[in-house]
Amino acid sequence: MNKDLSSALRPAIVMTLLFAALLGIAYPLALTGVGQALFPAQANGSLVRADGKVIGSDVVGQAFTSDRYFHSRPSAAGDGYDGLASSGSNLGPTSQVLADRVKADVARYQETTPGRPVPPDLVTTSASGLDPHLSPEAAFYQVDRVARVRGIDPAAVRKLVADSVEQPLLGFLGEPRVNLFALNRRLDAFGAKPPA
Amino acid sequence: MTFQGWLLIIAFVGLLLLLTKPMGRWLFALYEGRRTPLHRLLGPVEAGFYRLSGINPAEEQGWRRYAVHMLIFNAVLLLFTYGVLRLQGVLPGNPLGYDGTSADLAFNTAISFTANTNWQSYGGESTMSNLSQMLGLTIHNFLSAATGIALAFALFRGFARREAKTIGNFWADMTRVTLYLLLPLCLAYALFLIASGVPQTLAGSVDVTTLEGVKQTLALGPVASQEAIKMLGTNGGGFFNANSAHPFENPSALTNFVQMLSIFVIGFGLTWTFGKAVGNPRQGWAILAAMVTIFLAGVTVTYWQEAAGNPILHNLGVAGGNMEGKEVRFGIAASSLFSIVTTAASCGAVNAMHDSFTALGGLIPLFNMQLGEVVIGGVGAGIYGFLLFAILAIFVAGLMVGRTPEYVGKKIEAREVKLAVLAIAVLPLVILGFTAIASVTEAGLAGPLNKGPHGFSEILYAFTSAVANNGSAFAGLSANTPFYNGLLGIAMWLGRFFVIVPMLAIAGGLAAKKYTPATAGSFPTTGPLWTGLLIGIVLIVGGLTFLPSLALGPIADHLAMINGQLF
Fold first, then answer.
1. Which of A2, A54, A150, B416 registers the highest number of CB atoms within 10 A of its CB?
2. In whole angstroms, what separates CA A80 from the centre of its chain?
């Protein structure tokens, strides 16, 4: 047993240092180099710039709470869509806190459409708190409000949403969804154009 | 439940079955120490590593030496990561200026990653520097996975060798698996992830001015390099707090599909490798059939419950399935499937918050871990855990017909059965014992976020996840306290190494035995009867012990949920 112990020490220490250099330093640095060279946009977070400022990422969600925009889902990341504190609510199915929160959000959405069932993603927090998407149902649910606040034709807004729906890959990978950052930018661009 | 959802599940399992043999063959080449096409490139690295550390890869080790070398190596790795985490504040590669972590957190995290658990008491992006992620954590993702596969090889040799004193060389097994399997696969995999939108940069964060004019700071870092091995090595420790739910870790349905495949692919392959090693691939397929059956049963229950949704929310005017804690791009089908994959394997990555699942939807992930994660299981750990159950199953079969049982040519006698029971008993003892302690102490009861039975489920899930070396959580539990960091750290250590040592003792004992050829009186271990017996033993021996605790947690929670009772 003692011989087993002493014979293990040198390999254990040297192997730890060698693998640390290979897997902890060389591997991630090599990938960073290759990744930055081949896919610079994605490797840096798929950022979108306007007027020299970073206005968002194609991948990560941001908060939309103004009635002028399609609202994002509620978020448990920090105070909402905190990119340094991703998190879900972790509230269980029998949580009073969850029920109270959902009740308040449902009431807010049903103010204008009493009794119309709310799509589930619209009043639930995502797992990351940074969900970039809404279901098409949750986006269509908000068309009338957005159109009213912006003073544009609901049919035009509805068409904007319909054009923004992304379908599952190969028909079964993923869900039909709308990227909110993209949809709300299109909405802004639409508003900027003179009415036809 | 939808047609598309089932198509996803069927495509997933079908693709894995196609990958089983190719992956199994590659693993078999490494098991045998054969030359692979990659040796031309990486052979000199392997040889150099042996030379510098004074290892003769051809030197065979008995089970005691194999175990001691594996343990010392893991202890040194543990100390190394403990040091990196404590010194994080003064080391480079820390763009966000984080301090060194507390002693109890460093203790917990170092054990966690050494034991292939990757329980995260910390929020990744708000605690760990880029260097800590790379040097402290990524290396464990490789080496704990390689250690698991090496240990499986050792047990395979126990079954395959005849009247032998040795079961291989730990250093050679571990190094070959790392260099010729994990590293090359991860390089390709990580590039795919980067192309799909996973960041890989040394920058710490970027400031965004949103369309509404609010400042949002997005954490960045070398994410893809860690993500690849996190899945392939069934580690599960995310770069970010939200793990594979974070859009930067798992940006699309396609990356999600590949992530699920990569959790399982080595585990599927190892069943074939086992069959080949003992001279009959059908032995491997019989095991895989039992695993896949239990897996599909679990998927069905969780998917059904999540798609049905929460009646409490339905009464509030919300339509449809349970989307609390789920991402729209994955939806209910891919979130349910992922939760079963990650807990059947000892991965612990999550793409949805298990804490917010419906009561029975969340019961299955918990139950998967309580079975000991032998349904595919962690890389290496799954198959050696399952073979312990196989020893019990053949013993029970032997009792029924009244003769000494044999399995793949080896007589299974009292010593093997005793050691197998010892290894299997670690799980209920530590899980239930520690859960009981936490449930009656002030420090333990300070942990749960949710009240009522769901709060108990959070504690039970934490200790189950720790002992089973999974690492997923009912994450509402505030676990970053000295109480939980300490107790969970001990639980993870016991759950990993108190299973491994008896298992290696079995391997050593089996290797020394003579080959016993099958006769007309032998119980056939390749057909559906054997598969059925395996399923029964796993469910009864592995699962029944936990039924009372499940009744107090998720089952009580379910009854409250359907009666509309809130806590």
1. B416
2. 11
How many cross-chain Cβ pairs, A to B, lie less than 8 Å apart?
389
Domain count, chain A: 2
For tokens 């640390």, name the residue.
A20
Whole-model pTM: value is: 0.96
Cβ-nearest to A128 among B135, B247, B335:
B247
Per-residue pLDDT tens for B73-129? 999 999 999 999 999 988 988 888 898 899 999 999 999 988 888 888 887 778 889
- Its ipTM equals 0.95
Chain A residues in contact with B219 by the CB 8 A cut-off are 83-84
Of the candidates B380, B393, B391, the residue with the CA atom closest to the CA atom of residue B509? B391
Same domain? For A27 and A55 the reply is no
| Half-sphere exposure for B67 (CA within 13 Å, toward CB) | 18
Q: Which two tokens stand for residue B435?
A: 């859960």
Distances (CA, A) of B194 to A57, B256, B263, B362: 15, 14, 18, 31
Question: Is there a contact between A184 and A66 (Cβ–Cβ < 8 Å)?
Answer: no
Mutate to test the interface with B, among A19, A125, A135 (most CBs of B within 10 A): A19
Name the residue range of residue A77's domain.
Answer: 47-192
Same domain, A56 and A119: yes
**Locate tokens 């649910």: which residue?**
A141
To test the contact with chain A by mutation, choose from B356, B472, B555 the residue with the greatest count of A C-beta atoms within 10 A, namely: B356
Number of independent structural domains in chain B: 1
- The answer to whether A54 contacts B201, with C-beta atoms less than 8 Å apart, is no
Please give the residue of chain A at the shortest CA–CA distance from B306.
A93
Backbone dihedral region of B302: left (phi > 0), alpha (psi from -120 to 50 degrees) or beta?
alpha
HEC-encoded secondary structure of B143-163: HHHHHHHHHHHHHHHHHHCCC
Which chain A residues touch B225 with a CB distance below 8 Å? 27-28, 31-32
Smallest Cβ–Cβ distance between A127 and the set B199, B202, B245 belongs to B245
pLDDT of amino acid A196: 42
Is residue A107 domain-shared with residue A86, that is, in the same domain? yes
Note whether A157 and A134 are same-domain residues: yes
| A99 and A65 belong to one structural domain | yes
B374, B255, B357: which is closest to B306 by C-alpha? B357
Q: Is the model's pLDDT at A195 over the cut of 60?
A: no
- Compute how many other C-beta atoms are within 10 angstroms of the C-beta atom of residue B451: 15
Query: Cβ distance B182 to B232 under 8 Å?
Result: yes
pLDDT per position as a tens digit, A22-53: 999 999 999 999 999 999 999 999 999 999 99
